């Protein structure tokens, strides 16, 4: 049942996604199981982009003319939509960035860097995506501060107790993913945030893989920063969101300099605007913000609880159908995990699985999934990963199972 | 009246051409700079407070017809008022200009001529600039911005 | 005559721009004279975006499946188009960024910052856009290095002799605009580059306002860095180009960290990929690159020489029609200037001009145009600016003249 | 043959299951690490050069069927060859794999089984990895001969 009481009809949802519909009708129907890398786009998002460019387009914040006013209104309305989507207190706490990666970089550079002194530390977890590792390493470089890594168990469950010990009074930021892009693990972000706050540490939540699957509520989590990517929530490329608390943002120096973020410029002295403008230098991705807002609206209309329930059913079926396949091992078995299914096949390298499935028109991803430290911990070179979106069906899961059985025979 | 005549009423054009109290003030007790980064308008407001009253008030700076006439109207209206009265009037005017209230109180007098700006969202900040700057100066601040 | 021998037909060009066409047909036909802020989009660019999302979309560089391959091919083909557009030696010298602003920030942060020591200097000009000022100020902060500003004369012509004196052996970078967004001045970028190189300084050319109007040729200019924005060359928002010479890029540390830019990641040590990947962290604006390439293709098909000639004719007519208006003063009268027409009207503030013209459905821009130091030099609070694109017509110029005459009467 | 059988020929599957020369080498004169960041394949190539000839060659590491069999085929083919012959063969194989040439010289022998990869752009780097690593090791062999 959907949020508003109607049954979830995956056929209807699929009809909203032209690429899914059209490629499914081909001679070899495409089965797209790579939504964790990026989601396909509903027609309504693509139309929002076209409509904006063809009817309301102009640069924002600058012109006195009505087109510019219209475009500015659309852009700021998108910010309000983003606010609602993550349940921030005010739109000014929502900064438009290129992607989740840029969000982390902005925080690492403008917030953390100046606070990283010898004795200070940053706390990450073993399961982080490179986007939530490399920016911190770059910020740490040459500071004498320390990187601490919270371990996980063999199921992919975070060691909360160890987290509580690693975070201390010298922790500048604890940064962790809400949902792991490899294991599907859903971390107890609210609890982790409370623990970190108890020690006086700030918290960044990488919600890149959570936002496609569940309601994000920064007020409930209590985190200081949260990042997500538009392209992973059925929106356009080149746009993402950094949420941060007003009182923190206000004290942060700008990240990039340029037009639209300054109050006054002279060669002697330049002063900056308040938030959010200070963090959006130059002409922003106006259409991207509008498109991401359309995607957020769409997800809310379908209902986040519906999406979560539908994907949970797909994950169950996937487990059930794939478990009997000889040599197949599910990687990541945390209770309540999200619809990201990583696995290995004995004697068959993930990359070969990927190629085989592609020949059967099943798109999955194979490799380290930008999580090399996790692979090292798991002592595997990579996994094959089937990841689900709101448009996937039980039949597609069955096709995956059938194809995998063929592969096992081929390499036997 | 077409929309331009509605925005640029006779009173506005008059105050734009012959701004009242348009000068610096040496012995001001309160002073603030106002800045509208959108259009580059810059304004300085000077106030001399004596015995809880605005004994004198003036402004100078660069600005469009709306911001200049708004400042000129403001200084004309507030001279001699008590601080409380002035602050109250700031609130009423800003509420009117930003469309927070529909009614235009009679007490506003000539200032009501600024109401046309409500149809021009891009220009509202021009009209509110001097008022925000005055508020800032009375609070003891140095700069106001309508970004 | 166009590059391929057919006459330039502005009516045909207009027909390619749905917004221009549709709004021109309204009760009060829109006259869009704000292309320097951002250009409108031809149908073909919007369709390139839609087609990409609806037919070929997937994340790039990562998947073994055919959609991912198709998307990767489209992205790298866009890079090759960008290479051709600016005449770089190789596609790897073309980095996709958000906009010109980000391009300057990247260079200021990754190239200049580490070289700014006491005694060192950066050379800019009086006519720069904030995008080519603020990033340098941010990089200079706390380094003890110096900012030098090359003067211009009252026409808006750069003092080349002074440039030659201000640039010295301690100059890290000389950064200047190709075309001024306020004055229309076309700087002698090739000559300036040669002068700077003689002193051993590197050169960044801000081509944000040149790229819409003329052929960009980095091989001919010889510059080390060049930036431009997609949204100003009839392309999408959120995408721009940083060109840089291979030998310089190779020595630059990454700007942002994340996925897609690393070779190996471990918590102990991370190594980075070569160019261009090292500078494109996270999922890039894939659709934006594809859309900007479509815009570049379109401009080349119309012919850059044609666009330049058409706009030069518009500028002449503008001068001719506006010169007789009492109190009107053209700001920027450099010989051979581009189709950017700034002016002031005695007794009427630029902002009031903008509102009046808007009421007549003529979209121009009024204000400091993100060039406050230039305004200070000119001792004016701002200008009104009519800027032309390939779709503007002589009749539109005439409408501007008529409307300005009305304004003069109103404020008389 | 369907495209999968074309890519994963018997010879490939055989070398994947039973890779030849799949071990480290203590007394190697040349050595390099190869890395394919796309799929995470990692390979180490060891070469013992004696009198201008490849006296011994081996590899180890993690990789897909294509990269593993390619490395295995390479070591089998090059053992005993002169350095010039080996370098020439590297060039020929890489040209074949990357589609720079259409012809498959007879001299390639079993290595020709790798040709199916040309239809799979995403996999070409898997097939060329060991060859590039060998080239790297031989180029570095001169300056790193004291290790
Ligand atoms: C000369 C010049 N440089 C740089 C920029 C910055 O462009 P963007 O806002 O697209 O980064 C502009 C845009 O107004 C410009 O006119
Ligand atoms: C958990 C996680 N964090 C961050 C990212 C980075 O996202 P983007 O590439 O859109 O910046 C990803 C994407 O793969 C991810 O899965």
Share of helix of chain A, binned: 25-40%
- CATH topology annotation of the largest domain in chain A: Aspartate Aminotransferase, domain 2
Q: What is the CATH architecture descriptor of the largest domain in chain A?
A: 3-Layer(aba) Sandwich
CATH class of the largest domain in chain A: Alpha Beta
CATH hierarchy: architecture of chain B: Alpha-Beta Complex
Number of helices of chain A: 15
For the sheet with most strands of chain A, the description reads: 7 strands, mixed
Overall morphology of chain B: globular
Radius of gyration of chain A: 22 Å
Count, helices of chain B: 5
Number of strands of chain A: 15
Order of adjacent strands in the largest pleated sheet of chain B:
3-2-1-4
Any idea how many domains of chain B? 1
- Biggest sheet strand order of chain A reads 2-8-7-6-5-3-4
Average pLDDT metric of chain A? 95
Distance between the termini of chain B: 31 Å
Q: Radius of gyration of chain B, rounded?
A: 14 Å
Task: Report helical residue fraction of chain B.
Answer: 25-40%
Overall form of chain A = globular
Model description:
- The complex is a heterotetramer, with 2 copies of chain A (412 residues) and 2 copies of chain B (147 residues).
- Chain A is of the alpha/beta class.
- Chain A folds into 2 domains: 10-41 and 303-411, Aspartate Aminotransferase, domain 1; 47-300, Type I PLP-dependent aspartate aminotransferase-like (Major domain) (Aspartate Aminotransferase, domain 2), CATH 3.40.640.10.
- Chain A is 40% helix and 16% strand.
- Chain A has helices at 10-15, 18-24, 43-56, 66-86, 100-112, 134-140, 160-166, 189-198, 218-221, 246-249, 286-302, 304-322, 350-359, 372-378, 394-411, and strands at residues 31-32, 94-97, 121-125, 146-150, 171-177, 202-206, 225-229, 240-244, 262-265, 270-272, 328-331, 340-345, 362-363, 365-367, 383-387.
- In chain A, strand 3, helix 6 (134-140) and strand 4 form a beta-alpha-beta unit.
- The longest helix of chain A has 21 residues, at 66-86.
- Chain A starts with 9 loop residues before the first helix and ends with a helix.
- Chain B is α+β, with helices and mostly antiparallel strands and 147 residues long.
- Chain B has one domain: Sufe protein. Chain: A (Alpha-Beta Complex).
- Chain B is 39% helix and 20% strand.
- Chain B is built from 5 helices and 4 strands.
- In chain B, strands 3-2-1-4 form a 4-stranded mixed sheet, with helices on one face.
- The longest helix of chain B has 15 residues, at 83-97.
- The termini of chain B are far apart.
- At the A-D interface, helix 13 of A face helix 1 and helix 3 of D.
- One pyridoxal-5'-phosphate sits between chains A (99-101, 129, 131-132, 177, 181, 206, 208-209, 229, 231, 370) and C (258-259, 282-283).
């Amino acid at each position: 049942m959907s949020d508003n009481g109607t049954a979830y009809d995956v056929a209807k949802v699929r009809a909203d996604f032209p690429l899914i519909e059209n490629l499914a009708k081909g001679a070899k129907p495409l089965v797209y199981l790579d939504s964790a890398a990026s989601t396909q786009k509903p027609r309504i998002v693509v139309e929002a982009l076209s409509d904006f460019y063809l009817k309301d387009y102009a640069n924002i914040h600058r012109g006195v003319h009505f087109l510019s006013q219209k475009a500015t209104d659309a852009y700021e309305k998108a910010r309000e939509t983003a606010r609602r989507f993550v349940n921030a207190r005010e739109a000014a706490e929502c900064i438009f960035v290129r992607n989740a990666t840029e969000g982390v970089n902005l925080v690492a550079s403008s917030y953390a860097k100046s606070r990283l002194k010898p004795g200070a530390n940053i706390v990450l977890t073993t399961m982080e995506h490179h986007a939530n590792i490399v920016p911190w390493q770059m910020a740490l470089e040459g500071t004498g501060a320390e990187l601490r890594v919270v371990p996980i168990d063999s199921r992919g469950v975070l060691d909360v107790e160890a987290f509580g010990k690693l975070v201390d009074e010298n922790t500048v930021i604890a940064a962790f993913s809400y949902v792991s892009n490899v294991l599907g693990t859903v971390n107890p972000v609210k609890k982790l945030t409370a623990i970190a706050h108890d020690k006086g540490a700030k918290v960044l939540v990488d919600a890149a893989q959570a936002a496609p699957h569940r309601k994000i509520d920064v007020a409930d989590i209590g985190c200081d920063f949260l990042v997500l990517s538009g392209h992973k929530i059925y929106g356009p490329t080149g746009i993402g969101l950094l949420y941060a608390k007003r009182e923190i943002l206000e004290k942060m120096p700008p990240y990039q300099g340029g037009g639209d973020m300054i109050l006054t410029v002279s060669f002697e002295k330049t002063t900056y605007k308040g938030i959010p403008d200070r963090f959006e230098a130059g002409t922003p991705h106006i259409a991207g913000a509008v498109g991401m807002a359309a995607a957020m609206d769409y997800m809310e209309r379908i209902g986040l609880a519906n999406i979560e329930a539908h994907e949970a059913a797909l994950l169950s079926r996937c487990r059930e159908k794939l478990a009997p396949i000889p040599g197949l091992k599910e990687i990541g078995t945390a209770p309540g995990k999200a619809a990201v299914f990583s696995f290995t096949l004995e004697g068959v390298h993930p990359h070969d699985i990927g190629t085989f499935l592609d020949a059967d028109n099943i798109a999955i991803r194979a490799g380290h999934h930008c999580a090399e430290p996790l692979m090292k911990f798991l002592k595997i070179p990579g996994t094959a990963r089937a990841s689900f979106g709101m448009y996937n069906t039980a039949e597609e899961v069955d096709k995956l199972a059938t194809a995998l059985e063929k592969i096992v025979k081929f390499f036997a | 009246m077409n929309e331009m005549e509605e925005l640029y009423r006779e009173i506005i054009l008059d105050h734009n051409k012959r701004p009242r109290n348009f000068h610096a003030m040496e012995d001001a007790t309160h002073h603030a700079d106002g800045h509208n980064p959108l259009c580059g308008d810059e304004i300085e407001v000077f106030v001399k407070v004596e015995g809880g009253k605005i004994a004198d008030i003036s402004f100078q700076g660069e600005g469009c017809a709306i911001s200049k006439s708004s400042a000129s109207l403001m200084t004309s209206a507030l001279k001699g008022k008590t601080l409380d009265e002035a602050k109250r009037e700031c609130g009423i005017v800003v509420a009117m200009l930003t469309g927070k209230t529909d009614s235009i109180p009679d007490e506003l007098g000539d200032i009501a001529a600024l109401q046309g700006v409500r149809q021009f969202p891009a220009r509202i900040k021009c009209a509110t600039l001097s008022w925000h700057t005055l508020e800032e100066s009375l609070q003891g601040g140095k700069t106001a911005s309508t970004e």
